[in-house]
Write a structure and sequence with these properties.
The two termini are 49 Å apart. It is built from 21 helices and 19 strands. The model is unreliable at 1-36 (pLDDT under 50). The protein is 45% helix and 18% strand. It folds into four domains: 18-170 and 602-617, Orthogonal Bundle (Triger factor/SurA peptide-binding fold), CATH 1.10.4030; 186-221 and 476-573, no CATH class; 223-249 and 368-472, Chitinase A, domain 3, CATH 3.10.50; 262-360, Roll (Chitinase A, domain 3), CATH 3.10.50. Helix 3 (109-117) packs across helix 5 (145-167) and helix 9 (247-256) packs across helix 14. The relative contact order is 0.15. The protein has 618 residues and is α+β, with helices and mostly antiparallel strands. The chain crosses the membrane at residues 12-34. One of its GO terms (molecular function) is peptidyl-prolyl cis-trans isomerase activity. It is a single-pass type II membrane protein. It comes from hydrothermal vent metagenome.
Length: 618
C-alpha cells in the first residue's frame, strides 16, 4: 500500500522547535455524581472550583489510557505525573473558561447544534445525524443531554478564545523569506574531527594519581546493599494457559460474542498524486473529458509506488490513510472520481475501485482469537477468586512461600541480585517491587510481603532469599575504572590542545605534518543542508553555526564532550524554495507563534489569578 501517505509522525525542521501544547484534556466522562466526594473541593481558580469527583474521573480516564499503552511499565512515578497533569489540565480549562466569560464570549444554540450534528460518532448507517444514536452514546459515556451540551458550549467558547489569540499573531513576508533562506541554506566545507577516544594511547596515567583519586573520592566507591527475592506470581496470562476447553465451548463463546469478530468495510482506491494544484486541475479536466484514469496516473502521478499500476492501491479500512484522503474515499460511490483533495503530501485525485462490505468473520477464520478470548475470560474469573486466597494464605504462613505456592499451584521464582535502584528486568524495575523488597516487613522481620498489584491482571507476593550489606569497594576493584576516567580527561585535554594548534597553524607544511603525525585527515562535505544525515550531526551543526570566514581559515571548538571539530567554510548557497514550501513554512511558523501567544497569555492569566490547591484532599 502507498506507504508515504499513511498516518505517521513526520519529522520537523531541525533548527526550529514548535511546541504544541494540547490543553485541556478531553472532557468526556467528567460530570458530577451524587456521592459524598462530589462536594469536596480540591482546587479554587478565582471564582470557580474543581471538585474531587471531577478530578478523579479525569485522572482515572488518563490513567487507563496510559496503562493500556505501557502495561506493566506504569509505576508510581508515572502515576504522580498523570495526577499532576490531570489537575493542571483542569486548572487550565478553568482559567480559559473564566477569561472567556470576562470577555463575554458566548456560544449560541445554533453554533452548538452545528457542532454536534457534524460529529461522525453520532451518524447512522446513512452517514446522517441520528438523535437516537446521540442519546445512546451519551448514556454509554455517563452523560445526560443537558450536561453534554453544557460541556460542548464550553468547548465552543474556549475555541473562540483561542481563535481571538490566533488572530493577533503575525509574521512578515520578509521575515519568512529570511528564515527560509537560513533554513534551506547549503554549505560546502572542509572538516577535521579529533576524537579523544582515539588518543588514549597518547596519555600516561600515574599510579599515584589513581590512588589519589581513590582516596579523595572513597565515599563514592561503594557497592550498595543488594537483595535476592523469592516470589510467586498470580496472573491472568498464566492462568489462561491452564484453562481446559472443548470445541463446543469455543463455538458457544463465538456465538455469544459474534459482534467482536467483524471484518470492517475495506475500500480499494486508485489515486493520482500531483505536486501543485494547477497540474491537479489540468489532470481533473482531462478526466472529466473521459480520458483514462490509469493512463493519466502513469503520466502525471508523482507517487512512484502506484503510478505504474495506474494509481492502484491496496484494500484498506477506514482510518488507515491521512484524514482528508480517508474522508473523501469513504464518501465516494464505486467508480466515482473525487474532486482535488489536498493533504500534506500534495494534491490527490481519488477513484474508488471496489468495496468489501463489513461482515462477521466465520468461526473457522477466528478460531485462535476465540480460543484466546475464551481462555482469558475464564482465567479472569479464576484470577478474581484466587486473589483473596493468595492474600489469606501468604498472611497465614508468613515464614515461607511454599504453602502459598502449593495451595494455588504456583511456581516459586528466584531473582538475581538487585539494589534499591532495581535492575533492567521489567519486574525488578517496578517501584512497588523494589519498595516491598527493602521494606521492614521483608528485610528485617523476614516475612512475606503483602500482595503487590503489579498491574490489573498480575499480583505478586515476595520474600527475601538472601541479602548483602552495603560495602566499600577496594582499590583493586576500582583501579581500572578510575584509570580509564583519568585517561579520557587527559585525552580530552590533549585533543583540545591539538585542535587549537592545528587551527592556528598557518604554514601548509606544518599543518600537513600535524595531521600526518596524528593520523588525521581533512574531509570534504560537498554542498549539504542543515538536515544532512550522512555526516555526524555535531559537525553539521558546528559548520552551520560559524560565520563565513573571508580568508577561509579553520574554525575549531569542542563540538561534543570528547570530540574537537575544525571547519573551513568554502562556499555558501542561498536557500531556495517554491510557493508550496513557502505556504507550508508560513503555516508552521504561524502555528508556533499562535502556540507561544496562547501559552504566554495563559501564563499571565495564571499569574493574575488566585489559585489554591488543597493537596491533602487529592
Amino acid at each position: 500500500m502507498l506507504s508515504f501517505i499513511r498516518k505517521k509522525t513526520k519529522g520537523t525542521v531541525a533548527w526550529i522547535i514548535i511546541v504544541l501544547i494540547i490543553i485541556p484534556f478531553a472532557f468526556f466522562g467528567i460530570q458530577q455524581y451524587f456521592t459524598g466526594e462530589s462536594n469536596i473541593v480540591i482546587a479554587k481558580i478565582g471564582d470557580s472550583e474543581i471538585s474531587k469527583n471531577v478530578f478523579l474521573q479525569n485522572y482515572e480516564k488518563e490513567k487507563r489510557k496510559l496503562q493500556e499503552r505501557i502495561g506493566d511499565n506504569y509505576n508510581d512515578k508515572i502515576d504522580k505525573l498523570v495526577k499532576s497533569n490531570s489537575l493542571n489540565a483542569l486548572i487550565t480549562q478553568n482559567l480559559q473558561k473564566n477569561q472567556a466569560k470576562k470577555l463575554s464570549f458566548v456560544a449560541t444554540n445554533k453554533e452548538l447544534e452545528n457542532r454536534i450534528i457534524k460529529q461522525e460518532v453520532f451518524f447512522d448507517d446513512d452517514k446522517k445525524f441520528s438523535f437516537e444514536k446521540y442519546k445512546q452514546i451519551l448514556t454509554l459515556n455517563g452523560f445526560s443531554i443537558k450536561s453534554f451540551e453544557k460541556e460542548e458550549k464550553e468547548r465552543l467558547v474556549n475555541s473562540q478564545f483561542r481563535s481571538m489569540l490566533a488572530e493577533s499573531s503575525f509574521v512578515s513576508e520578509l521575515t519568512l523569506q529570511k528564515l527560509l533562506n537560513i533554513k534551506n541554506q547549503q554549505r560546502n566545507f572542509d572538516y577535521i574531527t579529533i576524537d579523544a577516544n582515539d588518543f588514549l594511547d597518547k596519555v600516561k596515567v600515574d599510579e599515584y594519581d589513581i590512588k589519589n583519586v581513590y582516596e579523595q573520592q572513597k565515599e563514592k566507591f561503594f557497592e550498595p546493599a543488594k537483595i535476592k527475592i523469592n516470589y510467586v506470581e498470580l496472573s491472568v496470562n498464566s492462568l489462561a494457559k491452564k484453562v481446559k476447553f472443548n470445541e463446543q465451548d469455543l463455538v458457544d463463546f463465538y456465538e455469544q460474542n459474534k459482534n467482536n469478530y467483524l471484518f470492517e468495510e475495506e475500500r480499494k482506491a486508485a489515486h493520482i498524486l500531483l505536486k501543485d494544484k494547477k497540474t491537479a486541475q489540468k489532470v481533473l479536466d482531462k478526466l472529466n473529458k473521459g480520458q483514462s484514469f490509469k493512463n493519466l496516473a502513469k503520466e502525471y502521478s508523482i507517487d512512484d509506488d502506484s503510478s505504474q499500476k495506474g494509481g492502484e492501491l491496496e484494500f484498506f479500512t477506514k482510518g488507515i490513510m491521512v484524514k482528508k484522503f480517508d474522508e473523501v474515499l469513504f464518501s465516494l460511490k464505486p467508480k466515482e472520481i473525487s474532486k482535488i483533495v489536498e493533504t500534506e503530501f500534495g494534491f490527490h485525485i481519488i477513484k474508488l475501485l471496489d468495496i468489501k462490505p463489513e461482515r462477521i468473520k466465520k468461526f473457522t477464520e477466528v478460531k485462535n482469537e476465540v480460543k484466546e478470548a475464551f481462555q482469558k475470560q475464564e482465567a479472569l474469573k479464576e484470577f478474581n477468586l484466587l486473589s483473596e486466597e493468595l492474600a489469606n494464605i501468604s498472611y497465614e504462613y508468613p515464614d515461607s512461600l511454599k504453602e502459598t505456592a502449593k495451595s494455588l499451584n504456583l511456581e516459586i521464582h528466584t531473582t538475581d541480585w538487585f539494589d534499591t535502584k532495581g535492575s533492567t528486568d521489567s519486574l525488578l524495575s517496578n517501584p512497588k517491587i523494589i519498595k516491598a523488597s527493602f521494606s521492614d516487613l521483608v528485610l528485617n522481620k523476614k516475612e512475606n510481603s503483602k500482595v503487590i498489584e503489579v498491574s490489573n491482571d498480575k499480583l505478586i507476593v515476595l520474600r527475601m532469599k538472601d541479602y548483602q550489606q552495603k560495602r566499600q569497594k577496594t582499590f583493586t576493584e576500582m583501579k581500572g575504572e578510575i584509570k580509564k576516567e583519568i585517561a579520557i580527561k587527559l585525552a580530552i585535554q590533549f585533543v583540545q590542545d591539538l585542535g587549537e594548534k592545528i587551527k592556528t597553524t598557518t604554514n601548509r607544511k606544518d599543518f600537513n605534518n600535524l595531521l600526518s603525525d596524528n593520523n588525521l585527515h581533512v574531509k570534504k562535505s560537498g554542498f549539504i543542508g542543515r538536515l544532512n544525515e550522512d555526516l555526524k550531526p555535531e559537525i553539521v551543526n558546528f559548520a552551520f553555526s560559524v560565520s563565513k570566514i573571508k580568508n577561509k581559515k579553520y574554525k575549531g571548538s569542542m563540538i561534543s564532550e570528547e570530540i574537537y571539530g575544525l571547519v573551513k567554510i568554502k562556499d555558501v548557497k542561498k536557500g531556495k524554495w517554491d510557493e508550496e514550501e513557502f505556504k507550508s513554512f508560513k503555516t508552521s511558523v504561524l502555528n508556533a507563534e499562535n502556540s507561544a501567544i496562547y501559552l504566554n497569555t495563559l501564563r499571565l492569566i495564571k499569574e493574575n489569578t488566585d489559585i489554591k490547591v488543597f493537596s491533602n484532599r487529592l
